[in-house]
Structure formats: C-alpha cells, structure tokens
Amino acid sequence: MKTGIDRISFYSSRYYLDLKTLAEARGTDPAKYYTGIGQEKMAIPPPDEDIVTMAASAALPIIEAEGRDNIELLALGTESGIDQSKAAGLFVHGLLGLPARCRVVEMKEACYGGTAGLQMALAMVQRNPGSKALVIGADIARYDLGSPGEATQGCGAVAMLITANPRIMTVEPEAGIFSDDIMDFWRPNYRSQALVDGKYSTRVYLNALADTWGQYTTITGRGYGDIDRFCYHLPFTRIAEKAQERLAKSAGIKPDDETLEQVLRRSLVYNRITGNSYAASLYVGLNSLLDNDDGDLGGKRVGMYSYGSGCVAEYFSGIIEPGYREQLFTGRHRDMLDDRTELTFRQYEDMFTLNFPTDGGEHTFAQYRTGPFRLAGVEQHKRIYKRAE
Ligand code: HMG
User: Fold this and answer.
1) Across the strands, what pairs with 342?
2) Does 111 participate in catalysis according to the annotation?
3) Cβ of 128 less than 6 Å from ligand 1
4) Which of 49, 79, 106, 314 is catalytic?
5) pLDDT tens digits, residue range 316-359?
6) DSSP, res 373
7) Nearest CA owner, ligand 1 atom 3
8) Global pTM?
9) What separation in Å is there between the alpha carbon of 37 and the centre of ligand 1?
10) For an engineered disulfide with 273, which of 41, 116, 238, 350 has Cβ 3.0 to 4.6 Å away?
11) Measuring CA to CA, which residue among 288, 229, 388, 338 is closest to residue 9?
C-alpha cells in the first residue's frame, strides 16, 4: 500500500528583513549573504506570532479543504518549544478543532523533528490505512545579534496531511540513517538563541549526507541518475548547491548551471526569501519545488535529505503522484510571500530584543500582521491564542 503526502501547506511571517539592510548595519558586503550563503531575506516573527500560530496557520487550508475526519495523529516537529511539558501541538489541535480521538505529540531533534514526525505518521497509516496524520514542522531560527549565524535566521511552518494512497507524493520505504553525539549546534534551556560551531556544523552536515546517501544507494541499488529532483535541509541555500556538487561528484559528474537549475534550484526559491525554519526547512524546500517547477513532476523521484544538528540525518525519497498540482496551495503561498512588510533595521532589533513576560501577570500583545491566528497575550503563565481579526 502506498503512503505519503496527500496535501502540503506552507506559512511564514508577514515581516522580513532584507539581508542588504543587515549587511549595511553590520558593515558586511551584501554579496556575502546574497551569493556567499545564498540568502536574500529572512522572515521575522512579530511579537504576536510563535510556532503555534505559524503551525495552525500552515495547517488551516488543509483542514478547510479536507475536513477533520480520521486525523488520528498530530505530530509537531519543533526546536522552538513554548513549554517543557505540554506539547505545542495541543494548542494547534484546539485552534483547528481536531477530534479528541487524536494522538498529539511534539517531536524534537533539532531540524530533524519534522522528519521524525513524518516517519511516525507513515508507520501509523501503514498499520491503519483508514487513519490520517497531520505532520507539522514549525520553527523560529534565532542566533545572537551580530554573530555569524545572524544572517541565517528565519521562520516558518509546513503542514502535511499523511494518508494512504496520497495525491502528492508517495514516500518510498528505504532510507539511509545516521546519528552521532556531537556539539555542532545546540540551545540550552536557559537561552533563547542557539549556539553554533558554524563551520564544523556545515562539515558534519555534508559528511552525514555522504553516509546516508551511501546507505540509500546500497539499499535501493539506485544511483544519482535515478533521482529527478533533489531537496535538502536548508539552513541557507548555498549549502544545498555544495551538497548537490558532492553527490554528483560521487557519481563522477560535474553538474553545470543549467542542470542545477533543473534538478535543484526550484526547491530553494522559498527558503532564499524566508530563511532557515529548522524542522520545517526541508519541507519548505519540497513545497517550493512543487509550486515553482514548471515541468510536470508526476512520476518523478525526489531525493530528500533531512539533517538535524546534534546530530541525526536521513536520506529518503518519494515519487510524485500524477495530478499533484491540483492538490497544491501555490497561489496562496505566492500571495502570502508577495504581501509581506519589510522591516527597518531598528524594527528588526526591537522585535528581536522584546522579552516575553515571565511574571505571571496579565499581558495583552499588540496586534501585528499575522495569519489566521495570533498570540493575543499571556495570563498566569498561560498563552492565549485567538483568531486574528
Ligand atoms: P561566516 O563564517 O560568517 O561566513 O559564517 P564565511 O566567511 O564562511 O562566508 C560564507 C561564504 O560566503 C563563504 O563561501 C565565503 O567565501 C562567501 P564558501 O567558502 O563557504 O563557499 N563570501 C562571499 N561571497 C561573495 N561575496 C563576498 C563574500 N564574502 C564571503 N563578498 C556560517 C557562515 C554558515 C558558518 C554561519 O552563517 C553560521 O554559523 N550559520 C549557522 C549554522 C548553520 O547554518 N550551519 C549549517 C549546517 S548545520 C544545520 O543545517 C542545522 C541547523 O539548521 C540547526 C538544526 O539542525 O536545528 C543550523
């Protein structure tokens, strides 16, 4: 029985900082960001947006189109958790009005959390083909102001409906898997910004790719030429080009610009203007590919590389279903991205440095531009979510 992605929907903040503005403020050549790391804009969440509002906003179009019946799992992958105990997905479950007969869990392993949720969902649907799962990746990438990681911030969420006989992508069962206890990127509980050994992290990302790709090709007997499109975890888009060159080199190929354009670059379009969204990022890439590739991808195989620092990596693949385009929310995604508000550097720093109230009092948050849901305030340490007006 085929299982996989039946619907996929992406949401990101309505605010962004152009990396030219960041470059000017930091005295850096903008080409370092635009070309060197391959990023143009980073999405910045306003004070009344968090992973719950982004996750619910990503999932709502799917619920409106498909209803709530038989959704027996909501797995939310994130490393921007809002509570040490309660799963953030429970707030999403409430906002979306999902059935009580639904397992709700939070998956954490840095950027791998979304893939962990996907694998759990596929296993559940295999066992009970009448059931469906909502898998969401949602994150806010934050590094210290002025640090090398600053230009690789961003935020966003991707929601996927996982079913039997999916209409967008059947996920193939084989995978290369790799874990190692390392410190390339981490965020202790007492910090709201991640710490990172940047250069080391990129080396480990590429080494884990080589390992998982090697396993994948051995298990499947497939090679570089059997993959039609490539999607990677995207901390910044330039790393995907490096990854692609590595895989091609292992097959004795040097891809030219035209080939990279065809097999890779449509998956980078959204990330380039929204930035890293950690657990969502690989799936932002997949959604970008589906929305922006002009060719008919029906029947094509997509290679998927998931990487979460710390680290866990996985290489797997899927086959795009004929007629997939009818299931996409392409127009909605484009409208959202075209209708964002650019921040000044001062506004960016003000949003960044705003402290979340921790005194247990009653606080109401000013209304910014958000999706259908917003974080209205906090009372007695409880977050209050509302429909945006
Ligand atoms: P850096 O040290 O400031 O940058 O930080 P750099 O000096 O290495 O320059 C970057 C690139 O720009 C270089 O290209 C330069 O040559 C080029 P490369 O040598 O790499 O090909 N460059 C220029 N190009 C054109 N014109 C110019 C110019 N100047 C320089 N004028 C770093 C870069 C990525 C390390 C930093 O941004 C960082 O620490 N980022 C955060 C960590 C990260 O994203 N790691 C990626 C792998 S780990 C991962 O993906 C997991 C993660 O998503 C977390 C999770 O799992 O949860 C992060």
Assistant:
1) 16
2) yes
3) no
4) 79
5) 999 999 999 999 999 999 999 999 999 999 999 999 999 999 99
6) E
7) 148
8) 0.98
9) 6
10) 41
11) 288
